[in-house]
Amino acid sequence: MRLTPLIATALLLAVSAPVFAQDDYTEFVSKEDFFTITFPGKPVMTDGTWLTEYFVNLPSKVYTINGVTGKHTLTVVDYTPVERVLVEKATKCPAGAETCIGVGDTGYGYWKNDVRGAVTYAMNKLIADKDVKVTHLMFNFMEMVGGQEIQFTNLKDQSRTFASAYMHRNRLIIAESTVPKGFPPPTIMQQSIGWLDENARGIRYQYLYLNEPDHAVPPPPRRGQAPAPPGQLPDRIDPGATAPTR
What we know:
Layout: E1 11-15, E2 25-30, E3 35-39, E4 44-51, E5 57-67, E6 70-78, H1 81-90, H2 98-101, H3 111-116, H4 118-127, E7 132-142, E8 145-154, E9 159-168, E10 171-179, H5 188-192, E11 194-196, E12 202-203
Antiparallel strand pairs: 1-2, 2-3, 3-11, 4-5, 5-6, 6-10, 7-8, 8-9, 9-10, 11-12
């Protein structure tokens, strides 16, 4: 089934779908954070706090669904403030303390490393100090935005967790679903993540995008998109569209 998103800063549209336990699919579009995703139900949004690997406290948005099909959580963190916070912190380091000050490649205060490692750090936070057995860990990409996926079994109750994390335009996106033992794999969120441009239009890159924080490195060019019919919003992406002329 193909779902067509409506564009808004944060817009929810429930669409009935014949899925396990008769949950509704909810197509979610965030113009502010440049992504779109399909939820297996209607999420509740709460504000949270995310501590980065280099100890920067950032606000987060947490979208949660608890139901018969398990628990589904989407966490969104804007890493844009990391550069400012860690560069300022570096000015207070002892003279010559490279592990505190950082260098050009790592960024002052290691801010570039904090951004570059956000996806790996998110994977680690999912399993660190938990009684789990990792059954799969892999690289993946969605619309050519690189990220990681992980699957693990929670040994206490044999429930299974499927999660993925991506970084796009400094937004860390973590999709996590946990279902009881014996339930079908909960992959709807992981398989439906898409990306938006500044005009809230679906995009796909021509080659791999890895959210490089170095300002001298431009993002990859985008693939072309078919124009929307008159009076209609553009769809996420048209995979067969011709790339724009450079």
